[in-house]
Amino acid sequence: MPNWLLPENIADVLPSEARKIEELRRLILDNFRSYGYELVLPPMLEYLESLLTGAGQDMALRTFKLVDQLSGRTMGVRADMTTQVARIDAHLLNRASVTRLCYAGSVLHTRPSGLHATREPLQIGAEIYGHAGLEADAEIQELALASLALAGFGRVRLDLCHVGVVRAIIDNDAKAKKDEAELFVLLKAKDMSGLIDKAAQYQAVTRDALLALPSLYGDAGVIEQARAVLPALSGVLKSLDELKSLIKLAGKADVTVDLADLRGYQYESGPMFAAYVPGLPNAVVRGGRYDHVGEAFGRARPATGFSMDLRELARLLPSAAPKSAILAPWSTDFVLREKIMELRNGGEIVIQSLPGHESDQDEFECDRILVSEGGKWVLKKLS
Would you say 221 and 256 are in contact if contact means Cβ atoms under 8 Å apart? Predict the structure, then answer.
């Protein structure tokens, strides 16, 4: 095997792509900061029990595991940063007030999420802790859509769901409550035959509501359809009201509602959303409320947030044009060195030619050159 061969679904990022990713990262993080979000940098690996707290079986299967040679304990390479940031809020910052945190960094997956997906996404996201009201959910939704707009995506489809609808339906039925995990899997897959078989043993009101959920998807009109066919339970009505408010706050996004789209239900506890853009069949952004993850760290706090993969986003953007640059000879001439420093401080890119070599790069296009005329170094255009 050649020693330059990388593992499957692991790839180097070359200069032009790396620049797109980095410029997008800076742009989005600066926008997070304008909303008052503070940047945190969690570690790449942690003890497994901390890393997988509240994350569910799916995340456990996606996490690389290894043994720490110092402690002998099992560690994991992070496959998601959400739980890590919740730990920082609950255990390290321990603030009584609302806390806004953001993050950006690589995560590692044991298996790719799709046919052409990388196993090393560059995850970026934002979280709000300490406020249980819809205002926090609305801000996170707005920030996610603003991030896609900054990336240049004018057309966005926002898909909304609310885990509170299903939980309210099954809460009053002991048998259904016991089967919660299996029901969520069946609903997510819209497996009607499986749902019919499983729901046959439940109370009639529970059975009818569960069987109606897979067909409750479409535009904003789904909210009123749901009111008509689902039981008028307080939890159901509250969840539908919250979805209606979030639809009104979605701006120019095309909104769809799918009350059976329950991905991530293991730790989600309220409104959930996914954002889609032209060119990709899978969601580029996922977010929602997860109020219980901090419990394992000794402090349950209301929480809502979102994350996305910068590498995947950047892949959809057009290649960046080469940057204009200035070519300069290599020399110990003090005047030349001062001139180069002056140009760089002014925002110019100056590339010095090393003796015996031509400058060859993809990122820059040298359209000017520094030449010596009458004891001064002046800029000349290159043809």
Answer: no
Kind of pairing between the strands at 99-106 and 38-39:
parallel
Ranges of H-type helices in 151-203: 163-170, 174-178, 180-188, 192-199
- CATH number of residue 47's parent domain: 3.30.930.10
What does the block give as tokens for 23?
A: 């410029």
HSE value, Cβ hemisphere, 13 Å, CA-based, for 133: 3
What is the rounded distance in angstroms from the CA atom of residue 120 to the CA atom of residue 184?
28
**pLDDT grade, residue 166 (50/70/90)?**
very high
Whether 8 and 128 map to the same domain: the answer is yes
In angstroms, the CA 51 to CA 117 distance is 23
**Cα–Cα distance for residue pair 29/41, rounded to 1 Å:** 13
Would you say residue 270 lies in a domain? Answer: no
Question: 163-170 vs 204-212: helix axis angle to the nearest 10?
Answer: 160
User: HSE-up of 370 (CA within 13 Å, CB side)?
Assistant: 27
Task: Work out the pLDDT band at 294, boundaries 50, 70, 90.
Answer: low
pLDDT digits (tens, 9 = 90+) for 298-356: 777 899 999 999 999 998 888 878 899 999 999 999 999 999 999 999 999 999 998 88
Q: Please answer whether residues 121 and 106 qualify as being in contact, where contact means their C-beta atoms are separated by less than 8 angstroms.
A: yes
The pTM (predicted TM-score) of the whole model is: 0.89
The residue range of the domain holding 208 is: 157-264
Per DSSP, the three-state class of 60 is helix
Cα–Cα distance between 114 and 129 in angstroms, integer?
A: 31
How far apart are alpha carbons 285 and 306 in whole angstroms? 7
Strands (E), the chain: 38-39, 45-47, 64-67, 74-77, 99-106, 122-129, 157-162, 217-218, 254-258, 271-276, 285-289, 303-309, 323-329, 350-353, 364-373, 376-381
- SS3 at position 285: strand
DSSP letter for 268, please: -
Give CA–CA dist 229/232, Å, rounded. 9
Looking at the structure of the chain, the number of domains it has is 3
Query: Edge to edge, what strands does the sheet with 74-77 contain?
Result: 45-47, 74-77, 64-67
